[in-house]
Amino acid sequence: MRKSVSLILALILAAGCAFSMFGCSETTAEENTPAEQTSTSDDGAAAEAEAETEWVDPFAGTDFGGQAFRVSSSIDENDATNADYLIRGSEELNGESVNDAVFNRNQKIAELLNIKFEFTETSFSVGSAEGDVKQLVVAGDDAYDVVVNDIRAMANLSRDGYIHNIYNAPFIDFEQKYWYTEAMKDCQFIEGGMYLLIGDYFTDALQSCHCLYQNKDILNNVYQDPNYVTNIVFDGKWTYDAMISVIQDTHQDLNGDGQMKQGEDRFGFTCWGRWGSMIPFLIATDIQFIERTDDGPQYCFNNERSVEILEKMIQLFNHTDGSHYDLADASVATLQTLFANGLTTLVGYNRLGDLSKFREVEFQMSALPYPKLNEAQENYVTSMHDTSEIGVLLMTLPVEQMPYVCTVLEVCGRETNRMVIPEWYENGLKVKYANGQDDARMIDLIHDAITSPFALAYDQALSNFMMSTGFSTPLSNDNPDFASNYKKSEKVGNKALEKTYTKFAQNLENGN
User: Fold this and answer.
1) CA 408 to the chain's CA centroid
2) Comparing C-alpha atoms, which of 444, 436, 450 is closest to residue 216?
3) 353-357: long-range contacts at Cβ-Cβ below 8 A with a sequence spacing of 24 or more?
4) How far apart are CA 433 and CA 356, in angstroms?
5) How buried is residue 376: exposed, middle or buried, by Cβ count under 10 Å (0-12/13-18/19+)?
6) What is the torsional sign of CA 163, 154, 388, 284?
7) Mean local confidence (pLDDT), 299-326
8) How far apart are CA 437 and CA 76, in angstroms?
9) Mean pLDDT for the chain?
10) What distance in Å separates the CA atoms of residue 162 and residue 146, rounded to the nearest whole number?
């Protein structure tokens, strides 16, 4: 028989969970290493005994009586990536390491908590996802315990009160490494209002992050060093200027007709259009769009740094010989074909997960971070996309079900970090598709630099004032006058910011 929620909570408490504001905190045997134990104790025997102490799962003994855990998992094939194969998988063992890790994770969780996973394939396009999910809530349809879909669409729904606030979610420990806590905090419009779940279980946030790819054979031919750009990156000097120089140095009119033509000549950099391709360049500059004040968030990007960012993007896209964005047959597949055929040194608008699509290339290649604005910028920054898929709990989920759902999500995050991420990331990207220690180190650099998704989540909600009006439109118009463009739309942008903040404040006042 299904145990009551109160009995389940008592069991978990009895197992030794300590609850903070965000939930339950655990310490694993891996995190408490023998070296650390020795350094904090003069008693070697006691330290050795402590090291041998077996970790006790705080969720052991939890029994949900075979209750279904209902997941809406995205299979939208129009997006560059989706979450389904890393959440649902094939639902059977097939010998493929990542799929089998997903299957084994789901089996382990089902047995540990005595639940059964029920997955529903949902194919909501980028244009329809918000309306399709909203329709579920308006109809009062309690169909799913968790919905996985685009961050932009889900951010809009959180603003409009269709998504549960998980700021004080029970049994979720946001201090654990399998939750991307800083990214979730960045998506808060108001302190206490957190709605978007970002973490290892929602693995698309990682596999859909942007990176460049480089053809190291071309670099070797031009610079007599296949690691020419790699070394620049590790030296902290991979900037707009450095990238522009590589584009100019490596493009070549292969057929000698005096014109650069797609499919016939080699470009230094190729991407698809300027809107989507611009996003990772912009975010990589470590731009700060808002500052949070006692009166709510305020825009803070009308400054000289934004002027420089726009000027550099216009130079790279519009005025650099060997840079190509206007594809004759625009698609990611075309981009990847041009790169695989050796017809571009660098390729943009690809994701970290796309490494798996280049198994058959016959040249040395690796991923790269997007460039810093200049050498004064301290860190590289990796961008998610506005279609990166994250998790939400719809308001149709009864409040009394929150402890159950949050318990399962916490275990899903933990076991994904232990069982799936090592296969997909460590044994997949970094071993199968990376060529040597430097390339694996580069993947780590890209991964560790994933940062602020605020603009990706809320640009549309804020009348496209940040990314579109501020940068994409003047880039397309070849207009470097940032201050003038900002001033034209400032009133609309501020009004949208105030309106959005007010809605979030009302959500909190209403208990959500």
Assistant:
1) 22
2) 436
3) 353/81, 353/206, 353/207, 353/208, 353/429, 354/80, 354/81, 354/213, 355/429, 355/433, 355/434, 356/428, 356/429, 356/432, 356/433
4) 7
5) exposed
6) negative
7) 97
8) 34
9) 88
10) 13
Cα 224 → chain centroid: 35
The first and second tokens of residue 84, run together, are 């389904």
> CA–CA separation, 41 vs 44, rounded Å?
7
Q: What is the pLDDT of residue 429?
A: 86
Kindly state the helix (H) or strand (E) to which residue 147 belongs, with its residue range.
Answer: strand 146-150
Question: Residue 369 burial by CB count (10 A; 0-12/13-18/19+): exposed, middle or buried?
Answer: buried
- How many beta carbons lie within 10 A of that of residue 285, not counting itself? 23
Using an 8 Å Cβ cutoff, are 149 and 142 in contact? no
Taking each helix axis from N to C terminus, what angle separates 482-509 and 304-318, rounded to the nearest 10 degrees? Answer: 120
Q: Which range is least confidently modeled, 30-44, 136-150, 156-170, 223-237?
A: 30-44
Strand 323-324: give its sheet, edge to edge. 323-324, 267-270, 344-351, 210-215, 365-368
Q: Retrieve residue 208's tokens.
A: 């859909």
Catalogue all structural domains in the chain, each as residue range(s) with its CATH number: 65-207+386-429 (3.40.190.10), 210-383+450-509 (3.40.190.10)
Q: 17-31, 152-166, 320-334, 481-495 — which is least confidently predicted?
A: 17-31
pLDDT class of 357 with cuts at 50, 70, 90: confident
> For the residues of 287-351, what is the DSSP string, one character each?
---EEEETTEEEE---SHHHHHHHHHHHHHHHS-TTEE---TT-SHHHHHHHHHTT-EEEEEEEE
Task: Tell me how far CA of residue 450 lies from CA of 199, 323, 403, 444, 456, in angstroms.
Answer: 12, 26, 30, 10, 13
Report the DSSP pairing between strands 67-74 and 115-122: parallel
Burial (CB count <10 Å: 0-12, 13-18, 19+), residue 303: middle
Alpha-carbon dihedral of residues 171, 177, 178, 181, nearest 10 degrees?
A: 70
Strands 146-150 and 67-74, bridge-based pairing: parallel
Q: Quick: pLDDT tens for 222-255.
A: 999 999 999 999 999 999 999 999 999 999 999 9
Q: How far apart are CA 383 and CA 282, in angstroms?
A: 9
Phi, psi of 291 (to 5 degrees): -125, 145
Please give the DSSP secondary-structure letter assigned to residue 354. Answer: G
Q: What are the phi and psi torsion angles at 352 (to 5°)?
A: -60, -40
Tokens 């660098």 sit at which residue? 346
pLDDT by residue (tens digit) across 97-106?
Answer: 999 999 999 9
329: left (phi over 0), alpha (psi -120 to 50) or beta: beta
Residues 6+ apart with CB under 8 A from 221: none
